[in-house]
Amino acid sequence: VPSVIVCHACDLAHRSDSLASNARVRCVRCRAELYRTNDRTPETAIALALTALVLFILANVYPLVAMTVGGTTRMTTLLGAAEAYHDQGYDALAALVACTAIIVPAIQIVTLLYLLIPLQLGRLAPGQNLLFRMLTAVRPWGLTEVFMLGAVVALVKLSAQAEVSPQISLLAYGLLMISIAALTSATPSEQYWSWITAVRKRRP
Amino acid sequence: MTTLITGRSLGLVVCLRCRATVRANGAEQSLCPRCEAQLAVRRPHSLSTTGALVLTAAVLYIPANLLPVMRTHEILSDEDDTIMSGVISLAHQGSWPIALLVFFASIVVPLLKLVALGDILLAIWRGGVRNPRQRSRMFRIVEFVGRWSMLDVFALSLLASLVQMQSLAIVQVRPAAFAFAAVVVLTMLAAQSFDERLLWDAQKHD
Q1: Distance of alpha carbon B141 from the chain centroid
Q2: Residue pLDDT, tens place only, A65-122
Q3: Nearest CB neighbour to A74, from listed B5, B18, B164
Q4: In this complex, is the C-beta atom of A35 within 8 Å of any C-beta atom belonging to chain B?
Q5: Which residue does chain A place closest to B160, by CA atoms?
Q6: Between chains, do B157 and A93 touch, taking CB under 8 Å as contact?
Q7: B24 and chain A: CB distance < 8 Å anywhere?
Q8: DSSP B3
């Protein structure tokens, strides 16, 4: 039924003979976004995902923040933040921090690269349906921007008693947060499926 | 007034994963032809799942806010901090914007979320939603801001990781930190399992 779009949030049916290009279309009743398209090829998204990948690596190998008290300096890394909970016996919290701040962003970047590179070459990646569904399921759990603000809160709290300084990894993480946001907005669902459908039509 | 036509009345279903509009072919367990996700006219057990998650989160909200989430051991004294006392010490320190931010993210947002979801569930259970537009707006705000409550979980992880031994103080995580994180995760799951269409199905015209 290509001529009707049903709103996922209020079930209202909309007549729609073709997808509007480069547009954001909302439901007339509940204002939910029905779809968004951007007229681009997967190229932009691939470039953004590669940028995010480099930033992700930088954010993980360098120290995140340093604290100096009485002449001794202590540094921590991104993984060190999750480890702190593990060291104190709170494994569930360690897993939560690791998943939301590190693993989910990594899954997003790698999965999109795996799906988009073949697409740019006019092919479909094996397992693409399953991976797409997995991606939409994990996306709400990627909390890079919240982690970033959490780091700011921790720095402010510590600055009362010690000398604290943000390190390279925090800068990389801030840029990672921006590139993931850009990557998400460069791959709106309906645009992604129009790339897929185009390839499926060419090679049935 | 124009009559509004729903997908259900046309025998159409939206795939909640890829948002394709698909003809519902009677069979309950059909798959989306585009992305192969399970299709359902309405998300199964949405109300009871959301209700159970909201209730659990509401119970955990109490220890999460009343009990200490961290303890600072110093040479001569130990100090317990709850979420609220953390906010107060940020304010004493003069960091008003950060104190307000943490206050909203950690205390107001989870409470708002519980109240909003509870209100939506009760309205549907009572069998009539008079203003679905307003309630759906409230739901979306709550869904959008909910993730920010994780702020303190991340801040605490960095404090616990940095403040160890040689700095003459140790930050120890207390069990209420777990309760607090559970509230955030459960309310996020509650919002995700709620099927917004139920608000419009229950719309009362008068």
Answers
A1: 11
A2: 999 988 888 899 999 999 999 999 999 999 999 999 999 999 999 999 999 999 999 9
A3: B164
A4: yes
A5: A84
A6: yes
A7: no
A8: P
Q: What are the tens digits of pLDDT across the range A145-187?
A: 999 999 999 999 999 888 999 999 999 999 999 999 999 999 9
A19: which 2 tokens?
């997808």
Q: For residue A98, give the chain B residue with the closest CA.
A: B154
Report DSSP letters for B138-185, one per residue.
HHHHHHHHGGGGGHHHHHHHHHHHHS-GGGS-EEEE-THHHHHHHHHH
Interchain pair A158, B163: CB under 8 A: yes
Are residues B136 and A153, on separate chains, in Cβ contact within 8 Å? Answer: no
pTM: 0.94
Distance from CA of A97 to the nearest CA of B (A): 7
- For B35, the closest of A31, A129, A158 (CB atoms) is A129
Lowest mean pLDDT of A19-33, A74-88, B23-37, name the range: B23-37
CB distance from A121 to chain B under 8 Å? no
Q: How confident is the model at residue B1 (pLDDT cuts 50, 70, 90)?
A: very low
- Cβ contacts of A84 on chain B, cutoff 8 Å: 157-158, 160-161, 173
Beta carbons within 8 Å of A198's beta carbon, 6+ residues apart: none
For the ranges A33-37, B20-24, B136-140, B143-147, the lowest mean pLDDT is seen at: B20-24
**Lowest pLDDT segment from A139-148, A156-165, B48-57:** A156-165
> Angle A168-186/A104-120 helices, nearest 10 degrees?
50
Q: What is the pLDDT of residue A1?
A: 44
Q: Which residues, other chains included, contact B35 with Cβ-Cβ below 8 Å and sequence gap of 6+?
A: A129, A132, A133, A193, B15, B17, B18, B20
